[in-house]
């Protein structure tokens, strides 16, 4: 527990340093890529609550992502709400949507749950495309006002990067507190053995609903950030491919860990941008690398690195103890 706390607060300190340093970055390309990486990390954190902590498969996370984005877009352009109230409304609406979706689907398991959530994502995307009077259809929504803070517009990339990093830190802190509470322990019991958890008196249905609701709310915040940054949204951003990318990010980084989704988002973003110059070939290489990593590192990148560092630390401690034992024996023989 002490090591986890030290690691957690170290990452918070690093996050604060990143927020401050982002204010002085000038490379627009790096700034935009960093903002997209932060949004991807938040989406991975949201789906990790389902896949990693409760063992539920969700293939409709892009639906919550899109609902959050369209909520901010509609409230700021048509009803002229402030971005902050719209973002709060997006969180509440997507949380309620997750709760409503969880009412029938949390009783399903395995691929049946995956198919149900997949259908939810497809239905939401169809609504975005066809309800033209509200969503604009394929043309989407334009002219979304960027957020302002103390009279300062956050439309500039470095300001928005600092703001999005702060939001990600708040989300990670909230997830950390929840996971290490009685709720998180109940989630882990459900993931390991649902029947044993139910026999032990855990309200399996209720805790699953909590996971669905919180997961949807975090994805809604990510959608609101995307809408505020791009100032334009369209249905093609929130399709099935986006849902697959979100769950792949969480699995690649390490499901069931706090920092695994962050690592997965960073790796996928760097990998995608590094292969961009290869045009059509990059998609083949990109997916081949993903399959290779998932096959040879089934636990994820972050747990693999953590184990290696832990083994190295234990080995160094053993060497240090052996060296101290040798010195003590030498002192004893000389005396």
From TrEMBL:
CDD domains on file: TM_PBP1_LivM_like
Lipid bilayer topology: Multi-pass membrane protein
Spans through the membrane: 6-25, 30-51, 81-103, 110-128, 159-183, 204-226, 246-271, 283-305
Keywords, in A-Z order: Cell membrane, Membrane, Transmembrane, Transmembrane helix
Main localization of the protein described in the UniProt heading: membrane
Pfam families xref list: BPD_transp_2
Location of the protein in the cell: Cell membrane
Keyword Membrane recorded: yes
Protein name: Branched-chain amino acid ABC transporter permease
Biological source species: Fictibacillus terranigra
């Amino acid at each position: 527990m002490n090591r986890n706390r030290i690691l957690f607060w170290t990452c918070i300190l690093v996050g604060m340093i990143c927020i401050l340093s982002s204010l002085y970055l000038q490379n627009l390309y790096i700034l935009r890529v960093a903002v997209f990486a932060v949004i991807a990390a938040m989406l991975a954190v949201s789906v990790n609550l389902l896949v990693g902590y409760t063992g539920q498969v969700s293939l409709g996370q892009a639906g919550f992502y899109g609902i959050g984005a369209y909520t901010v877009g509609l409230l700021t352009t048509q009803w002229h709400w402030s971005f902050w109230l719209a973002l709060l409304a997006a969180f509440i609406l997507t949380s309620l949507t997750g709760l409503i979706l969880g009412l029938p689907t949390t009783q399903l398991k395995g691929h049946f749950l995956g198919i149900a959530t997949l259908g939810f994502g497809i239905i939401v995307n169809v609504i975005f495309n066809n309800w033209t009077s509200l969503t604009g259809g394929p043309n989407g929504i334009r002219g979304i006002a960027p957020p302002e803070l103390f009279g300062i517009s956050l439309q500039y990339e470095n300001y928005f990067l600092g703001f999005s990093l702060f939001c990600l830190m708040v989300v990670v802190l909230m997830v950390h507190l929840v996971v290490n509470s009685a709720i998180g322990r109940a989630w882990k019991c459900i993931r390991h053995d649902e029947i044993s958890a139910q026999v032990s008196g855990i309200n399996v249905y209720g805790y699953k609903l909590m996971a669905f609701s919180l997961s949807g709310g975090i994805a809604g915040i990510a959608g609101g950030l995307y809408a505020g940054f791009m100032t334009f949204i369209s249905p093609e951003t929130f399709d099935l491919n986006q849902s697959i990318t979100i769950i792949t990010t969480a699995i690649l980084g390490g499901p069931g860990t706090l920092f695994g989704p962050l690592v997965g988002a960073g790796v996928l973003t760097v990998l995608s941008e590094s292969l961009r110059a290869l045009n059509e070939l990059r998609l083949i290489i990109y997916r081949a690398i993903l399959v290779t990593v998932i096959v040879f590192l089934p636990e994820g990148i972050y747990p693999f690195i953590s184990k290696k560092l832990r083994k190295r630390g234990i080995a160094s401690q053993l060497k240090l103890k052996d060296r101290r034992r040798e010195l003590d024996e030498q002192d004893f023989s000389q005396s």
